[in-house]
Amino acid sequence: MSEPLLEVSDLQVYFPVYGKGLVPRHINDVKAVDGVTFQVGRGETLGLVGESGCGKTTTGLAVLRLIEPTGGSVVFDGVDLSTLDKRDLRLLRKRMALIFQDPYASLDPRMSIGAIVGEPLEIHRLTQTRADRDDRVGELLELVGLSPDYRNRYPHEFSGGQRQRVGIARALATEPDFIVCDEPIAALDVSIQAGIMNLLEDLQDELGLTYIFIAHDLSAVQHFSDRIAVMYLGRVVEVADRVALYETPQHPYTAALLSAVPVPNPAVQRTRQRIILEGDVPSPLNPPSGCSFHQRCPKAFEPCPHVDPALRTTKRDHDVACHLHDPALSGAAGA
Ligand code: SF4
User: Fold this and answer.
1) Pick from 291, 292, 260: which is nearest to 275 by CA?
2) Is ligand 1 within 6 A of the CB of residue 163?
3) How far is ligand 1, taken at its centre, from the CA of residue 308, in Å?
């Protein structure tokens, strides 16, 4: 990994749950993100993958400080975001952006494309005059492959792919060096997904961007990520270099996700066995004891329901949270 631009340590986001009554009492917490640790190198893409509800979007929002974390730290370019006052946080936020999942819901239908893309320029006072702003909006639209003449049109006049390009132009307005891409192709037609992925890749090369790319399956991040973190029930269970993760997955949950990714070679595909996980992801309101995956894990053994596995480094730049890779416990597996 190159020099880290982003260092996330033991990040927690808990949402309090209150009981009924005249004076509602705090009775529990939904642990949406529960001790997440990872780093993203400068100019790299970290794929953040997991089933719906595993906390990956909440992690992305907490990294950008759009949700206040309950605990842990986010260090961006050497600065701990929790130490910043409002003004300094606002200044630093210019360097961070978010691309939303749904290009239909994320653009205000009452605003013109010019107003949508120009809004961050106004908020951060990055242009002096209206003419400057219009010029900059035109440049941004061209950068994402749209005509500057689209400035005066409205979102309903565009396809899903074009709307997502508008969302990307808006994200680039403040010249960020780090972007959280929250499932940016999930709501798009398969035929236009490749165009958006290519655009994001070209922008990364051209502008030296660093990405967290959130996705719900491993096929979406396969060719795009340098490193991949797999999340399950609010935690990172495996994080590794892309090649290592695809070739030698160490966590049974990663292996199950990978078994669903089709392989282009039909001969190899025929020999592969799909691992079907039983049951649903448990509620983060009432997570299981021990390893939170033990009720669905095909490899669970004696310590799993009782002992919570820590994320440990098993090989160079490959971390996994599973007792199978703990030398002190793995001898008991299959005994
Ligand atoms: Fe499966 Fe046990 Fe590893 Fe959890 S710790 S993933 S239950 S083998």
Assistant:
1) 260
2) no
3) 9
Domains identified in the chain and CATH numbers: 4-95+176-334 (3.40.50.300), 96-175 (no CATH)
- DSSP annotation of 297 reads -
213 burial class (0-12, 13-18, 19+ CB within 10 angstroms)?
Answer: buried
Angle between helices 130-143 and 160-172 (to 10 degrees): 120
Centre of ligand 1 to C-alpha 225, Å, is: 26
**Is 293 close to ligand 1, i.e. is its CB under 6 Å away?**
yes
Query: Is 324's C-beta closer than 6 angstroms to any atom of ligand 1?
Result: yes
pLDDT digits (tens, 9 = 90+) for 112-159: 999 999 999 999 989 999 999 999 999 999 999 999 999 999 999 999
> Among candidates 176, 29, 159, 42, which has minimal Cα distance to 107?
159
Task: Evaluate whether 258 touches 279 at the Cβ level (below 8 Å).
Answer: no
**Residue 270 one-letter amino acid:** R
pTM: predicted TM-score of the whole model, two decimal places: 0.92
